[in-house]
Amino acid sequence: YLGEQLASRGFITISVDEDFINYSNVSGIPNNNYELRTWILLKHLVQLKDLNEPIGNPLYEKVDLTNVGLVGHSRGGQAVAMAADYKRFFDDEPWFNQLQDIQIKGIVALAPTDKSLDGKRAWLSNVSYFVIQGAQDADINTFQGDRQYYRTSVSNDTFKASLYIAGANHSQFNTEWGSMDTSLPEGLILNQMQTIEPEEQRQLAKVNI
Fold first, then answer.
1. Is the peptide bond before 185 cis (omega within 30 degrees of 0)?
2. Residue 114 near residue 141 (C-beta atoms within 8 A)
3. How far apart are CA 106 and CA 81, in angstroms?
4. Distance between CA atoms of 63 and 122, rounded to whole angstroms?
5. What pLDDT tens digit does each residue of the chain (209 aa) get?
6. Residue 17: which residues within 8 A CB-CB, separation 6 or more?
7. Does pTM surpass 0.90?
8. Quick one: which of 73, 105, 76, 107 has its CA closest to 202?
């Protein structure tokens, strides 16, 4: 739903499904799932750069790599901030050379996590940052994205903003996770009487983003 909205406004929009690398409470794999999420996002940007250059490719000179925005939900909301501050988390000079022409200008985080990774968290400078949190979130039940908000410094060309939505939960920001914020059987005993309808929650996200 966000992709359709953004595409209708002239953005080239790509959805990257990263649920398959979620950390497992059973096996503990992959323990570096935040770094892996971030790496995959950045690799997609490098791929777009490659597709933007050959004559005859449908994306030839259509991708503005100086104005890139990333949107992430939950762990993905932390990963997109890490992608905008990638040199803090990776040490790969040849790869940095591939990324040097790509400018991430804006980050949107939907109910993000803010986990410390080896004592490091993303610090954003001159990157616009917008965070949305639901007041009825039973998964990320503290406003963790607020910490990233305060670690973001802006200039005359950027901004930062936060939105706290009464009645919004965690899972209904997307169309695949259902209405329960926790897995069964715990999800069955969640009080959802104050949770707004999924369509209303997604409409609020869509309009504000």
1. yes
2. no
3. 9
4. 26
5. 999 999 999 999 999 988 777 766 666 566 688 999 999 999 999 999 999 999 999 989 999 999 999 999 999 999 999 999 999 999 988 889 999 999 999 999 999 999 999 999 999 999 999 999 999 998 998 999 999 999 999 988 999 999 999 999 999 999 988 888 877 777 667 777 889 999 999 999 999 99
6. none
7. yes
8. 73
